Amino acid sequence: MKHLGKITLLAVTTVYAGYFVRQAARTRAERVFRLAAGESPYERVHPKPLRPKSA
Question: How far is CA 8 from CA 1, 16, 17, 19, 22, in A?
C-alpha cells in the first residue's frame, strides 16, 4: 500500500508541474505576440485610462 501512495503522489506532482510549465509557456508566448504587435511592456502594466466618448 505504501507504493500506491508514492505513485499517486508522484502522479499528482507531475500533473501540477506540467500545468505550471504550460502556464509559463503560455504567458511567455503572449508577451512575445504582444511585442511583435508593437505593444510595449509598459502599456501592458499601465494601460491608458479610458475616456468617455463625446457625442
Answer: 11, 12, 14, 17, 21
